[in-house]
Specification:
Jelly Rolls, about 10% strand, about 550 residues, alpha+beta, 12 strands, 8-stranded antiparallel beta sheet
């Protein structure tokens, strides 16, 4: 058994190298800019240079002017074969077959319906990893993918803290990758079928990325779907140009609708709101001409938070002010959303929705200040740039990260009123405000004795909506609330105190803590060292980036 675990660990260590190698070979063989790709790769070895958070080369979208439709179909079919080969060889050998073994072993330890469902997962996964040629076999393979995805969704919903076995996530990822290929395969009746199937394929990939698929692994699949979508759109546009008058009128109407959408700006104003919190002790600020070497010596090496010089030169600061930018370019892409106020445990939930729906139903009413709007929602702590790397072209990793080693970048895009409760993290963080305004309150690690750190259960972390008694009725709803609370503070790194409105009778020691406050606007940056407590509240609709290093 021990030897088996060691072997599995060796396989997992091979995985990262395998994924990146697959991605590199695929992109270099398909991109029109291999030399640019190489230059970006070398920047990883010279970390003092500015670079992107994702090593990504935009494809030349004008290289699709094929002589006839046969060439278009042939090239798509060839790419689908290559993607199938990745699943059947590299991914299967790296972890796919081991995952099927784990599922089978797990089934032997469970009873009843779960036993049968897990056994079926193992058998279906082996079918998903198998090269098949006949159309009937491929149809069965597609049904196997759909069964795996459906079963794993059910397991995910039933388990309060996510999948409890790595093989569940691995199976979901492999099933989703294969299903995306299945959706694009086969003959289509018309462009509408092409568009519908390519959308289904992208939704498979987005869901896999949201639930843990590495960006580098999914990227060749995503690029293939994007290319398929572009070509479908070109064929549709070409068909519209050759249609009769009535269809041309319809096309004109469609264009006018598109124009109307693009002209309806959803711009977040660069105006500090009137209801700005009172600053008790302002966070220290570096001089505007400070260098990253000075930052490293004076703050990074000493684990001291500081406000860094502002930088309004990033293209995203202007481009992303109009949140319609996200909708127009990536409106159909799926994103993970936290909906509801953080302290409202009854109604707080997580869901996966389209970017378009998030913009239209959540952000737009907030930005336009529509009466009766009560939505508080957050695309929070998500590696969106692994999922949609085109957005990473709008900014660079800040030079301050040169003090350490850059790891990853998250986006925080949401309405006004979002709150991240006072907590600490295990990594260093450069937090940059891109759009709108946020209030941040920080406390040094030395103030930890005064901040009433939770013991790992979220229900003991909120001062305004928490019952600390242990004699609550043990009904089904209570169990659901408890599991949700536990899920939301699995690390036990959150303060029990509402640091903007503390209950000093309940938490008297908090009076000894010394806050450091700052209001961040577009282009402002702060350094939050690991284990430094911080609380964040959005004052307007807002977009932030944090760079972990």
């Amino acid at each position: 058994m021990v030897e088996r675990e060691r072997e599995r660990e060796r396989e997992r260590k091979k995985l990262v190298f395998c994924f990146m190698f697959i991605f590199y070979v695929f992109v270099v063989s398909h991109t029109a800019f291999p030399s640019k790709r190489r230059s970006m790769s070398t920047q990883h070895h010279h970390h003092h240079h500015h670079r992107r958070v994702v090593d990504y080369c935009p494809e030349n979208e004008d290289d699709d002017d094929d002589d006839d439709a046969k060439d278009v179909e042939f090239s798509i079919e060839e790419e689908l074969k290559e993607l199938s080969a990745i699943i059947e060889t590299s991914l299967a050998d790296a972890f796919g077959f081991a995952c099927a073994d784990d599922l089978e072993a797990s089934a032997a330890k469970t009873d009843g319906d779960d036993d049968e469902a897990t056994k079926r997962l193992s058998a279906d996964l082996r079918l998903i990893l198998t090269p098949l040629s006949s159309s009937s076999q491929k149809e069965e393979q597609k049904r196997a993918c759909e069964r795996c995805v459906s079963t794993l969704w059910r397991i995910l919903r039933e388990q309060s803290c996510g999948w409890d076995k790595p093989c569940y996530r691995e199976c979901f990822v492999l099933s989703s990758l294969r299903l995306s290929v299945c959706e694009l395969s086969g003959k289509k009746e018309n462009e509408a079928d092409d568009a519908e199937d390519s959308q289904k394929a992208m939704e498979c990939l987005d869901t896999a990325l949201i639930l843990g698929c590495p960006g580098g692994m999914a990227r060749p699949f995503v690029r293939c779907v994007e290319k398929f979508m572009r070509r479908t759109e070109k064929k549709r546009a070409s068909g519209d140009d050759n249609d009769d008058g009535s269809d041309n009128n319809n096309n004109t109407n469609n264009n006018s609708k598109k124009q109307k959408v693009s002209q309806e700006a959803l711009v977040v104003e660069n105006v500090l709101p009137s209801s700005v919190p009172k600053i008790i002790h302002p966070l220290e600020r570096m001089n505007d001409d400070a260098t990253w070497e000075e930052f490293k010596a004076m703050y990074f090496n000493k684990d001291l938070p500081v406000q860094l010089p502002s930088d309004k030169s990033m293209p995203c600061i202007e481009r992303w002010r109009d949140v319609a930018y996200f909708k127009e370019r990536f409106g159909k892409r799926l994103i993970p959303l936290e909906v509801g106020k953080y302290d409202d445990v009854e109604n707080w939930k997580e869901e996966i929705i389209s970017m378009e729906k998030f913009i239209d139903e959540h952000l737009a009413p907030d930005i336009l200040k529509k009466e009766g709007n009560t939505f508080v929602s957050y695309l929070a702590q998500h590696q969106l740039f692994e999922q949609i790397p085109q957005l990473a072209m709008d900014f660079e990793i800040p030079k301050w990260c040169n003090a350490g080693r850059f790891e990853r970048c998250n986006i925080w895009l949401g309405t006004s009123g979002t709150i991240t409760p006072c907590h600490f993290d295990s990594y260093d963080n450069i937090f940059g405000q891109v759009v709108g305004y946020k209030f941040v309150r920080l406390f040094l690690e030395s103030d930890s004795p005064f901040l009433y750190q939770s013991g790992g259960q979220w229900e003991t972390t909120r001062s305004w909506n928490v019952n600390d008694d242990d004699n609550e009725e043990n009904d089904e709803n209570t169990k659901k609330r408890e599991s949700k609370k536990k899920f939301r503070n699995a690390q036990g790194n959150i303060s029990r105190v509402d640091v903007e409105s503390p209950d000093l009778e309940k938490y008297p020691e908090f009076a000894k803590a010394t806050p450091m406050d700052v209001v961040l606007g577009p282009g402002d940056f702060i350094y939050i060292p690991s284990r430094t407590w911080h609380y964040v509240r959005s004052l307007t609709a807002s977009c932030s980036l944090n760079f972990l290093f």
